[in-house]
Every structure is written in C-alpha cells, then in structure tokens.
Amino acid sequence: MSMTSSAKSPANSIAATASSMAPPLAAKSVSSLPIISAPAGPTLFEAAERVPGETLDDIRADLGECTRCRLHKGRTKLVFGVGNPKAELVFVGEGPGHDEDVQGEPFVGRAGKLLTQMIEAMSLRREDVYICNVVKCRPPENRLPDKDEIGVCSPFLLRQLAAIQPKVICCLGACSAQTLLATNQGISRFRGEWFDFRGSKLIATYHPAYLLRNPPAKSEVWKDLQKVMAVLGLQLKKR
Fold it and tell me: Which of 97, 63, 94, 68 is nearest to 80 (CA)?
C-alpha cells in the first residue's frame, strides 16, 4: 500500500499526518521495561569484540563474506547497512527481505519505501540517517530470525551502533527492540517509551511492514516519530 494512497486520514498517511498535526511532542522521561529477561553471563554488547576507534568500514571488513550461521546458505547478497556513518538517528529492523537480499541494501522494498516516506515526513532524507538490521542475511521465507542466528549476528549490529554513536536509535518492530533491550515482552508493552542504551536514547515503534498490513497504526507511529523529532530538534517543513 502506498503512503499517499489515502491522504484523507492521518491514520493512512504519515506524510499527510505531518502536515496536519501539531508540532512534535516533547520527549518523555526515560522509562524502564516492566519485565526484562536478563541473559545469563555477559550481554551481547559486552561479548562483542570492541576496537576503540573502529569505523563501519572496519566492521564490514571483519564481517567479510560471512558464513558464521546458516542464513548465509540462502542469501544472494549480505545486507550490512546504509546511510550516514555519523548519523544522529539510526533505524534498526529485523532482517533483509527479498528485495534487500537482491540489492544488498536494507529497506528497499515496499516497507522500505514506506520508511523513506516516514523519514521524509520528519524533515530528513535517507542519507541523513543510518539504516540497518539485526541480522545481515535474509531468513528463509522472510521468517523471524532464530535466537541462535541473532546471537551470532547481533554483535556486529552492536559494533555498528558503537561506531556511529547516534543520539537516537529507533527500533522498527519487536525483533530489534527485544534484541537490544534483552526482553521477551511484546512491543505493545513499551512502544513509544524512551530507554537509555549505551549513551543513546532508544525508542521502539511498529515495523513499516506491519503498517502495510495495518494502516490505522500509522497514526501511532507518527506520534513516536514526533518524539524522535523533539529530541533531535527537528521541525516540520512548511509547505
């Protein structure tokens, strides 16, 4: 579904909503999850190899043509990430889909086009932000990544975030939010709330693919994006 296919209702178009709603909301105080399943032993971040001063290029070189988990067997292209290496805002999804697997770039299919419109509604461009996923290879039939696949691949995500040091991390969907927050709680329990994450502020919202299936949820996502805009000092573009 196109973002512009039903501009009469804010629930059906992030861009249309941007022009009709009030200025960005003030960010709430940082919250804590109601229930967190703390992993035994070191966290993923602590377990990841961290090299002071490493860049995204360094991390990509270390990742190489990865065969660390079974997802590599079905991939066409590894999907590392794209965007500004010094971005103040990073979007994190769960994993590549068919179009991403073919092109080697995250969020380029229908959900990616919707994400681009969301970013533009925030008065930003795709090249202003950084976009990546929890896993770098497409899971078969677009299923959710398994825990062991996440365990192997997510340290590279954490190194990406450490290299970028964004002001805000926006998790798109439950998989990325649950991975970074180390929780098994459903996203509806904490969507739109702020969390501290290794020096960045983290917020979770619904995945663009979910919005394609459930257009009324777009209005809720726009509220979340307004909170991000408030933290980043962004204003709606005047038309």
Answer: 63
- Residue 185 DSSP symbol: S
Buried b (16+ CB within 10 A) or exposed e, 54-70: bebeebeeebeebeebe
Tell me the one-letter amino acid at 2: S
Alpha-carbon dihedral 203, 206, 207, 213, rounded to 10 degrees: -170
Tell me the pLDDT tens digit for each residue of 190-219. 999 999 999 999 999 999 999 999 999 999
> Positive or negative, the Cα torsion across 215, 218, 121, 87?
negative
Domains and CATH numbers, the chain: 43-232 (3.40.470.10)
Tens of pLDDT, residue by residue over 17-49, are: 444 444 444 444 444 444 333 344 444 444 444
pTM for the whole structure: 0.83
Percent of the chain topping pLDDT 70: 79
What distance, in Å, lies between the first and last C-alpha atoms of the chain?
Answer: 24
